[in-house]
Amino acid sequence: MVPGLLPGLVDSTLVAIGSPSPAALPGVRTDAAVEVTDLRKAYGGGPTVLDGLSFRAERGRVTALLGPNGAGKTTTVGICEGLRRPDSGTVRVLGLDPVADAARLRPRVGVMLQDGGLPSGVGALEALRHLAGLHTHPLNVDALAERLGLTSFARTRVRRLSGGQRQRLATACALVGRPELVFLDEPSAGLDPQARLAVWDVVREVRAAGVAVVLTTHLMEEAERLADEVVVVDHGRVVATGSPDALTRGPASLTFRSRPALDTRSLARALPVGAEVAEAEPGRYLVSGIEVDPRVVATVTNWCASHDVLAEGVGPVRRTLEDVFLDLTGRTLR
Ligand SMILES: Nc1ncnc2c1ncn2[C@@H]1O[C@H](COP(=O)(O)OP(=O)(O)OP(=O)(O)O)[C@@H](O)[C@H]1O
């Protein structure tokens, strides 16, 4: 957190959104902010889009929905926001029904308003002020605008904003009403690195205040760095769920760099049975299929020495979230 930026928001705003979430206290279990059970949906009798999807999102935590294009993330979030109806299954949002209790949920849930949701002929900051005026206890608009870097395009009309500027305004709109739960749809899409870091900082701050954040993203780095819980969705089902750490834990591989086109079969023969050696990209080698222990590292180093090969960075490498995601969802384009 950047201390200099905090006072404007913290004094009267973000941290005051709620008292620290009971869910964040050890040993205390509360109702989930979002609880989705066995959702099924097919648009207009077409192919199945949601096929028994279930997940929970807790208060004071960031839950990231990851999945290939068309996996059903936006449909799921739309159902949670009360904008779409499932064919079957149940959804509880802050303990309420998103359609039947829409009026009660509206002031408590933040959503990213896209093009149609904002007056397009007014300046960005004016649009945010307008929205803030609809809430009883809005955040400090100037502080929020400063934090998300909206001030540089404060007077630009909404319809003339660039993609990244529009995205930042939409994030501000989702947060300005001081929600207990916020849905962020690809909040970093199209953002430059500075803006992305600023958005992540603000998201961390609202989480610390006990807000439940549910976001969709295609950025593995965003999920890895921001999410407490990752929900991987594919073909309308949850195929994995867990913290980034838990999902990427598992057998490490061994990697090293050297000149391209080494005799990988010869190296594999020197290693214990089951070892596979691949040249993942020219000059980068990956040993997998066996447990990486000090003897394996020594065998690779000795093989390199006896073949006059200079190897750099010989050591275990942990799977990334992207590796896990591709293993779970495959490499076929959707
Ligand atoms: N209004 C609609 N009418 C008919 N089909 C739809 C509608 N909205 C979405 N779909 C279809 O439902 C499937 C899931 O779409 P959805 O937008 O939920 O996926 P997503 O995971 O959010 O994808 P992306 O990552 O590309 O945003 C897709 O095949 C899409 O074509």
TrEMBL record:
Give membrane topology per the record.
Answer: Peripheral membrane protein
Q: Which GO terms describe its biological process?
A: response to antibiotic
Q: Which residues form the signal peptide?
A: none
* Domain spans labelled ABC transporter: 34-260
Under Gene Ontology molecular function, one entry of this record is: ATP binding
Q: Which InterPro entries match?
A: AAA+_ATPase (IPR003593), ABC_transporter-like_ATP-bd (IPR003439), ABC_transporter_ATP-binding (IPR050763), P-loop_NTPase (IPR027417)
SMART domains under this entry?
AAA
UniProt keywords, alphabetically: Antibiotic resistance, ATP-binding, Cell membrane, Membrane, Nucleotide-binding, Translocase, Transport
- Gene3D superfamilies xref list: P-loop containing nucleotide triphosphate hydrolases
The record's GO CC annotations read: plasma membrane
- Compartments, record wording: Cell membrane
Q: What is its main location?
A: membrane
Q: Which PROSITE patterns match?
A: ABC_TRANSPORTER_2
**Which Pfam family, an example, fits this chain?**
ABC_tran
Against PANTHER family, the record matches this protein to: ABC TRANSPORTER ATP-BINDING PROTEIN
Q: What is this protein called?
A: ABC transporter related
Organism in which the protein naturally occurs: Kineococcus radiotolerans (strain ATCC BAA-149 / DSM 14245 / SRS30216)
